[in-house]
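Consider this one:
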Amino acid sequence: MTSAEAAALALQDRAALWRTGEAGAADVVSSACDALVAGVDSPALRILAACTRAEADYDVHDLLPPALDELGLVLHPAGSRAAQEAGVRALATRTLAGELTPRELAFRVHWRFGHDFSPAERLAVLDDEYDYLEHGEDTAQVDADVLAEARRITAVVRPVP
């Protein structure tokens, strides 16, 4: 995967995190800038990347869909099951990249989706397992289980732009 492809997927993931409330609008604009620097380009992406932090909260809602559409990337409808699944996958991807700890992944997914969202139910259960451990008890096995679940979640084939 080229750096441009990776940057495009990172933008799509950031958009998914924004849809689920796990990232701010300014984070989306930063990802748009990163994509431009990596060689991803479209007219709508340039407009999105030009947003200031002050404008982001107001403008990303309108500017992000056409930018992703021009790039052939997906932005699922807010609140949809597909948007939630994309958000969980983006969090799992960040964990496998070392940006989140396994415990942070389990906590965030449990807090955001609870036990009633079947694609992420195992992570909610693993978050409970962290809570059951005694203070100072080794978390290595639960960490390994969370990472295995993150690998399973990210194994879903995504189209490469």
Notes: The chain has two domains: 3-71, 81-154. Residues 3-71 form one domain. The mean pLDDT is 94.
